[in-house]
Amino acid sequence: MKSTGIPKVTVHTLAKMKAEHRKISMLTAYDASFARLVDQAGVDIILVGDSLGMVVQGAGNTLPVTMDEMIYHCRSVARGTERAQVVGDMPFMSYQASIEDGIRNAGRLVKEGGVEAVKLEGGADYAELASRLVKIGIPVMGHIGLTPQSLHAMGGFKVQGRSATQAKKLLEDARALEQAGCYAVVLEGIPRELAEQITAAISIPTIGIGAGVHCDGQVLVIYDLLGMNEEFRPKFVKRYDNLAVRIRTAVEQYITEVRNEQFPDEEHSFSKDAPARPEAATPYSSARAAAGGGAGERDPDASGAACIPLPFPRPKK
Ligand code: KIV
Question: pTM value?
Fold first, then answer.
C-alpha cells in the first residue's frame, strides 16, 4: 500500500482474482499522464511494454529498445500510478546472454524504474532465470506464444501454437514458468482453444492478447485501444475510440484559431488589472514551485496568485 492509502494491486490480489474467476485487466502505458488515466479508470496492471519501441519511438519492432530507455519510461509510469501493479518489460538482450545479466537488469527496473514486477519473453529456457529472480524477491510475469523479440526466428508476427507439436511445447513452457514461481503469464497470438487449455492447466493467471476470451485476463497496447494509429488494424485489437481523428481535429482547430487570432482570447490571457478571481500559474511552473523552486519559478504575470492543483500532487520518486 502506498502513502495515499489506496490499496495496491499485488501478486496476491491477482492470484485471488484467478481463484474467484474475476477477470484481470492490463494495459500498457509509457508515461505518467497515461498511467494516471488508466490507473484512475481502474485497470489492474499497467505494463511498461517494450512495445514503446514501436508506438513511442516509431521503430518497426521492439528489438532496439534499451535498458536505459525502459528505466526512463518505467519511472514515469510509476510516478503516475497509485493502485495498479506496475510491470516493466525486460528489453531484448537484457537477459538472453546470461542469468547474471538478467538479474542485474531486472534489479535495475525495480530499483531505478520503480516497477513492482518484470516481464520476460520465453518459456522453459528462461525458467531458471525466473526462479532466481523470484528467490531474490522480484515477481516475474512470463510471456509465451507470439514473442515479438523472436520476430526474426518466427518469420514475422505470426500466430503460434497451431500445430500439435507447437501447442504441446507451449503448454510445457507455461508449466515450466509456473513451477519457476512466475505469478502470471502472457499468452500472445495463440489459438483460443490452446489458451483455454493452458489457463485450465496452470494455477497462475494467464493474460491474453490475441488469445481469446478464456484467459484469466486481457492486455492491449493503449495506443491500439484508443485508435491512435489508423494503419494498424490487426484482428485481435478492438478500438474503443478513434483518437487519431479526434486529436487531428483538435489540433487543426487550434491551428485555425491561432491563425485567426481567436486564441488566446480574453479568458485565456492575463491582464495588468487585478484579477476578479485568483489567476493560475501554468502547471509546469507550479510543479517547479512545489518541488522547491519557490515563488521565483512562477509565471511572473501571476505572482502572488494561487496555483492550480498539480496533476501529480507529490513528487514521489
Ligand atoms: O510490449 C508489450 O506491450 C507487450 C504486450 C503487448 C503484452 O509485451
Answer: 0.89
